[in-house]
Amino acid sequence: MSRRRPPWGAALAAGVAALSVGALAETFDVREPSLAPYRIEGTGIARPLTGRAGDPARGRAIARARTGGHCILCHAMPIPEEPAHGDTGPDLAGVGDRLSGAEIRLRIVNPKYVLAESMMPAYYRIEGLHRVAAGRPLLGAEDVEDLVAYLATLKGR
């Protein structure tokens, strides 16, 4: 059975997620139950959700884990020991050169804020979603920060 990609899927694979969202100059304070508050400013979330930087080694484990992040399901990544990588989302090799930590954080927390048609799940949202456990985001604040720390290290191609 072949998988049909939505018309915008090819654009995503080509790196649409790396586009600047400079037009987003608004500031939003987000306070959802059970989530650390965060502020979207311009193109990202500048402050870590935990108040401190994450652990890149732990973030790499989250990116390749079959539970939790599972980034490798949809993205090609520089993780050679993994035999299968997805091609639904953009290749994450070099993402640390294309996006700031704040921009990466926003894409993990709420990718639809950046690209409304994104197929990527919101990993740190609980409001308005259908497939999340009641009151629990897919990733905790520390997991998000670990993932941001790892993805920010992916530089060069």
Short description:
The chain has 157 residues and is mainly alpha-helical.
Describe the structure.
This protein has 157 residues and is mainly alpha-helical. The protein has a single domain (9-152), classed as Cytochrome c-like domain (Cytochrome Bc1 Complex, Chain D, domain 2, Orthogonal Bundle). Helices cover 27% and strands 5% of the residues. The chain has six helices and two strands; from the N terminus they run H-E-E-H-H-H-H-H. The protein has helices spanning 9-13, 56-64, 95-98, 101-109, 111-114, 141-152, and strands at 27-30, 38-41. Strands 1-2 form a two-stranded antiparallel sheet. The longest helix is centred in the C-terminal third of the chain and has 12 residues, at 141-152. The radius of gyration is 15 Å and the shape is globular. 32% of the residues are buried. Mean pLDDT is 79; it is low at 1-28.
Based on the model shown, name its key terms.
mainly alpha; 2 strands; disordered N terminus; 157 residues; 27% helix; globular; Cytochrome Bc1 Complex, Chain D, domain 2
